Structures are given as C-alpha cells and as structure tokens.
Amino acid sequence: MSTILTLDEIAAAIPDGAKLALPVDYAGVSMALTRPIIARAPQRLHIVCLPTGGMQPDMLIGAGLVATIETSAMTLGEAGGAPCFQRAVKDGSIRVMDGTCPAVHAGFLAAQKGVPFATLRGMIGTDLLANRPDWKVIQNPFADAPDPIVAIPAIRPDVTVFHCPFADRDGNVWVGRRRELASLAYASERTFVTVERIVEDSLFADETLAAGALPALYVEGIALAPGGAAPIGLWNEYPADMAAIRTYAEAARSREGFRAFLDGADRVLEVAR
C-alpha cells in the first residue's frame, strides 16, 4: 500500500545527485512538486525526460539544480523553446545527453525487463552516435553476415514523479492509456505520484479501470494535489493554460526574469489552477 505524503515529503525524497525521471507534458506532469523541489534544492540532478521535457525540467534547470539532462527534446510547445535549458546549453552549465524518442523508451524498457540494454537500428548513420559514447554499435549475434545494431543502456532512475487524475485508498493509481507512466514506475527505484483526488473503491474491482491501473506495488507514496498539473494540462481533466505558460516563457528569457517569476510563481500557478 502506498503511503499518503505531503508535497514537501516527496520533495525531500529526492537526494543530491539523484537521477530523476519526469514524463512528457501530455502524460501528466506534477507541476505541484516543482516549487517544493526548488525549495529543497537537491543539487547535481540528472534529469531524464520520457521522452521529452517542458516547463518543469526547464524550471529545475533555471533554479540551478540540474547537472545533466537526458532527453530527445526540450520545448514549451506553442509557447516556444525552453529558455532556461537554452541558456544553460549556451553557457555550458549543463550536460546534455541527446537522444531520440525511441531510444529513451528503449532505455526504460530495458530497465523494466531487468536487462542491461535494448537494441535499435535507427541511429546508425547519424551523428548521435558520435555524441553518445554510452551507446554501443555491436554485431547482431544471430546474423551470419555483418549486421550492426545499437545497444542502448538501461535507464534506471532513482526517483520518478508524475501526476494522475486519481488513486484509490489502496494506493493503486489510474494511468489510463498513458503507458509511459507505467514504464517510468516499473524502471524506477522509487516512484511518487500526485493526484487530483483519492477514490474509495479499489481500481482493480472494476474491469475497465483495472486495465489502466498502476498497482500500488510500484508506487512508494501519493500526495493529494488538486490542479497539480497546472498550468500544464491533464488528460480528461483540464487543458493547458497557454497564457500562463507564455508568461513563464517570456519571463524566463533572462535570469532576472526567471527569478522574478519564481518570486511570484505561487500566485501565478494558483491563478492558473
């Protein structure tokens, strides 16, 4: 059974140097945890985005908490590029492990299967291999003729956090069709989830809900956070507030603007919810 926690307690579970996994914006981002994480200020984080990142990792970068980011893209969608990420790349203050969406998914798949790597072909002939020494081109052991294939190492996060519509009293979490959230939890050492609400009936008591439920076995803690994905939207609950995201994008173009946004972020995000 998952433990009911506060946002601050979840933030405190992210230590210095942790490999922290975060979901793509449309899957369920726990924006409610962003400010508590920044307040706790864990240092030298290695952020892994499955498979892309947006406002949340950009804010963690802007707060100076991130040493490495592993992702296939960083974007604020219609609001443009991720300004803190772009600034960190330009000034060399962050290490970027550039990937592709299939490669990031393959790394998580290997971790959840308990194997050291997964294989893909798509990167052969690209410059990605020159910039990812951890990806190895190996010979297909089942081929008689030369047949190179790329080995992608397993991605095993220390901590994963994401946001979902609801969980039940037993700690089972509704992820619906967002199977990337299940991949994050299966691969991660510890998973914490914020939810809009907690329901009384077990998700596994209903055949339809059971198909989209993440078992409590994979969830260490849950925090109740209504509106916890805002201003990013949450599937089947509420849309993204693009005005609030654009406000962030404009402010974060400078370090001073980002700090000013942080000073007023509680108010801005509360309005967005």
List the main descriptive attributes of the protein structure presented here:
273 residues, alpha/beta, Glutaconate Coenzyme A-transferase, eight-stranded parallel beta sheet, three-stranded antiparallel beta sheet
Report on this model:
The protein has helices spanning 7-12, 25-28, 34-40, 55-62, 83-91, 101-113, 128-131, 179-187, 207-210, 242-251, 255-272, and strands spanning 3-4, 19-23, 45-50, 66-71, 95-98, 117-120, 136-139, 148-153, 159-168, 173-174, 190-199, 213-214, 221-224. It is globular and about 60 Å long. Helix 10 packs antiparallel against helix 11. It is built from eleven helices and 13 strands. It is an alpha/beta fold. The two termini are 29 Å apart. The chain has an eight-stranded parallel β-sheet, with helices on both faces. The protein has a three-stranded antiparallel β-sheet with strand order 6-8-7, with helices on one face. Helix 4 links the parallel strand 3 and strand 4 (66-71). Mean pLDDT is 95; it is low at 266-273. It has two domains: 3-99 and 155-268, Glutaconate Coenzyme A-transferase; 117-153, no CATH class.
Q: Kindly state the percentage of residues in helix.
A: 25-40%
| Strand order within the widest beta sheet | 1-13-11-9-2-3-4-5
H/E element order: EHEHHEHEHEHEHEEEEHEHEEHH
Which CATH top level class of the largest domain fits? Alpha Beta
List how many beta strands DSSP finds.
Answer: 13
Examine the coordinates and then state which fold CATH places here, giving the name of the CATH topology of the largest domain. Glutaconate Coenzyme A-transferase
SSE-based structural type:
alpha/beta
Tally of individual domains = 2
SS summary, helix count: 11
Mean of pLDDT: 95
**CA-to-CA gap between the ends?**
29 Å
Uncertain spans, ≥5 residues at pLDDT below 50? Answer: 266-273
- CATH superfamily grouping of the largest domain: Glutaconate Coenzyme A-transferase
Q: Any guess at the CATH architecture of the largest domain? A: 3-Layer(aba) Sandwich
- Which value, in Å, is the CA radius of gyration? 19 Å
What's the multimeric state? single chain
Which descriptor suits the 3D outline?
Answer: globular
Q: Give a short account of the largest sheet.
A: 8 strands, parallel
The share of residues in extended strands comes to: 15-25%
